[in-house]
Amino acid sequence: LLFLGGAGASKLAVLLWIGLLQLFETAAYNMLSIFDRNRTFRPRRRVEPSNPRYELYKKAQEILKQTLGAGNLREAVKVPEGYDQNDWMSVNVVDLFNQINLLYGSMCEECTDQNCPVMNAGPKYEYMWQDNERYKTPTKLSAPKYIEVLMDWVDKQLSDESIFPTQPGSKVPPNFQQVVKTIMRRLFRVYAHIYHSHLDEISACGAEAHLSTCFKHFIFFVQEFSLVPKKEYEPLMEIVDSLIQPER
Questions:
Q1: How far, in Å, are 41, 75, 238 from residue 36 at the CA level?
Q2: Most confidently predicted of 13-22, 44-53, 88-97
Q3: C-alpha dist (Å) from residue 210 to 57, 107, 150, 229
Q4: This prediction's pTM
Q5: For residues 11 and 207, is the Cβ–Cβ distance under 8 A?
Q6: Nearest to residue 211, comparing CAs of 223, 227, 199?
């Protein structure tokens, strides 16, 4: 492994990262320094020990570790008995954001303005960006620009103390679940673009199984809490069905 360099090292690193994502929190965080910084990476988000939801976050890690070993990701997304649903959703959104952020940032080097001038999921589905701030109306962007803006937007939501509070005794706002729904719907579009435009690239470096595991985790989570409208699944309906059918 030490003989690999450049993009190969970056891709190998993210394979190792995703495989150990939930198991070695601190060590994996430090590995960010070996990734290719020319991609649209953001520092990985963590739930700090000072966060009142830290205990729940660690419990989520342990549950995921156990269910991955048992091959049952659906159990990993269920709210543990005695815990608040919004708190559970909060810590899981952070992890799911980290997964897709790292996967896209390391593995999709061919996603450029030239190769992907439109953010789409095949010829039938095109996505435009609107955030009511810089982009006040639906705006057509290249795929890498769309995903860059999207990741920045999600990072901003996760950093907003009024939405994802970190202080003891703090509560999420009344519109918390609506914000989470928007986050997850938009992150789904990144998966849709990857599967339609970059699957060959990911398969070529042996990362397809990791992509499937991350996407399966994502789908089970959004289905558990009805976060993404079924209509949004259409570009990936066959893949979604193939992932969830064995566990129905």
A1: 8, 34, 32
A2: 88-97
A3: 22, 11, 22, 25
A4: 0.76
A5: yes
A6: 199
- The tokens describing 57, both together, are 């976050």
Q: Please say if the pLDDT value at position 83 is more than 70.
A: yes
* Per-residue tokens: 126: 């095109």
Amino acid at 106: S
